[in-house]
Automatic annotation (TrEMBL):
It comes from Solibaculum mannosilyticum. GO terms for cellular component: cytoplasm. This is O-acetylhomoserine (Thiol)-lyase. Keywords: Lyase, Pyridoxal phosphate, Transferase. It comes from the Bacteria. Its cofactor is pyridoxal 5'-phosphate. GO terms for biological process: cysteine biosynthetic process from serine; L-homocysteine biosynthetic process; transsulfuration. The keyword Oxidoreductase does not apply. Belongs to the trans-sulfuration enzymes family.
Length: 424
């Protein structure tokens, strides 16, 4: 990793062409790589030599993007996955097995909640969901002897809860387990959880990182800081029978976790993105440092407008001084939070849908966090499967409108909101 500032790293990290090679990251659309001897190929399989041999495990285009993201987050290594969902699954399954337990914030993305609460339970992994704002002593009560990880979102989608990263890092470390942070909403431009004690950072790179809604991608970043040798993680310290008895910590040191994720889980689960998607993600990353401040600036203007309008029941934007999360946001992301604002219009669920249907510039789409302003009603879409109680725990009220402010002219976005409110 270079010493350049983050803006420079967005552009310069990752692909480093040798003399005469393409300046721009090429799309290596190849499943396979040719070698002169079977012996060398054997060494690659034994992880004794670095190199590419099959794109399910690694690909030069994806490798360059992984290096860039690892640099942006301040980690020792990263692995791209075919989606944010795959990143969440693999980040936990890499260290937690059937019969073990995870402590998770209740304020998380609806898809992640279903993955944990339904699908991963079927895999024998137990979860306890805690209110992120609960006192440290309260949260501590849910830890068990078999707890192996703690999972939070830095800014929860869509509740916009800013989670106290240091509080959860303290709790996790006190119990000898890592803290995994989904950092999708602030992106490393606005928040770098590893600096506050996170051990693993994951992303739905589908959102701001790609930024243009072109490709579904995920990524897992390893801080390289967690000590896996405390006896709780034999998968990282004992021989891996499925990989010629390799011991990850012994052989790969700080990169043990991310190497195991790749050589064991990516090999077996195969959730690899296409090289084409890696190329598009890389293009997005090159302007991430320009787009994020504009998203935040526009979102702040929208939030301030909504806060003053009498037809609005409530507004939640962690950048607003009136937000209960303002001080946490100032601490963890002083340069800005994200472009997503949530609010309720007076008149509840019905008014919410009428308002949304009247919008002209802001499109109703199942997406969030890209260049174009878009809007969604989580209670009837992404969080549809949740009970009222689960909705409340996740911080999603039935009238919540998730408004993802794009990078258009803020005045145009506000005028669109105004005309839709006039229609109510
Ligand atoms: C969208 C999202 C996910 C899931 O990512 P996909 O790329 O859609 O699979 C996970 N976490 C957060 C915070 C998200 O916004």
């Amino acid at each position: 990793m270079s010493d350049y500032r983050i803006e420079t790293r967005c552009i310069q990290e990752g692909w480093k062409p040798k003399n005469g090679e393409p300046r721009v990251l090429p799309i290596y659309q190849s499943t396979t790589y040719q070698y002169n001897s079977s012996e060398q190929m054997g060494r690659l399989f034994d992880l004794e030599e670095e190199g590419f041999f099959y794109t399910r495990l690694a690909n030069p285009t994806l490798d360059a993007v992984e290096k860039k993201i690892a640099s942006l987050e301040g980690g020792v290594g990263a692995m791209m996955t075919s989606s944010g969902q795959a990143a969440s699954l693999i980040s936990i399954f890499n260290i937690v097995s059937a019969g073990q337990h995870v402590v998770s914030s209740a304020a998380i993305y609806g898809g992640t909640f279903n993955l944990f609460n339904v699908t991963m339970r079927k895999m024998g992994i137990d979860f306890t969901f805690v209110k992120p704002d609960a006192a440290e002593e309260e949260i501590e009560k849910v830890f068990q002897d078999n707890t192996r990880a703690v999972f939070i979102e830095s800014i929860a989608n869509p509740a916009l809860v800013v989670t106290d990263i240091e509080k959860f890092a303290r709790l996790a470390h006190k119990h000898g387990v890592p803290l995994i942070v989904d950092n999708t909403f602030p992106t490393p431009i606005n928040c770098r959880p590893i600096e506050f004690g996170a051990d693993i950072v994951i992303h739905s790179a589908t959102k701001y990182m790609d930024g243009h809604a072109t490709s579904v991608n995920g990524v897992i970043v390893d801080s390289g800081k967690f000590d896996w040798t405390n006896g709780k993680f034999p998968g990282l310290t004992e021989p891996d029978d499925s990989y010629h008895g390799v011991k990850y910590v012994e052989s790969f040191g700080p990169a043990a976790y991310i190497t195991k994720a790749r050589t064991q889980l990516m090999r077996d689960l195969g959730a690899i993105p296409s090289p084409q998607n890696g190329f598009l993600l890389n293009l997005g990353l090159e302007t991430l440092h320009l787009r994020m401040p504009r998203h935040c600036e526009n979102a702040m203007k929208v939030a301030q407008f909504l806060e003053k309008d009498h037809r609005i029941a409530w507004v939640n934007y962690p950048g607003l001084p009136s937000s209960p999360y303002y001080s946490l946001a100032q601490k963890y992301m002083p340069n800005g939070t994200c472009g997503v604002v949530s609010f309720g219009v007076k008149g509840g669920r019905e008014a919410a849908t009428k308002f949304m249907d009247s919008l002209k510039l802001a499109a109703i789409v199942t997406h969030v966090a890209d260049a174009r302003t878009c809007v969604l009603h989580p209670a009837s879409t992404t969080h549809r499967q949740l009970t009222d109680e689960q909705l409340e725990e996740a911080g999603v009220t039935p009238d919540l409108i998730r408004f993802s402010v794009g990078i258009e002219n803020a005045e145009d976005i506000i005028e669109d909101i105004e005309q839709a409110l006039n229609n109510l």
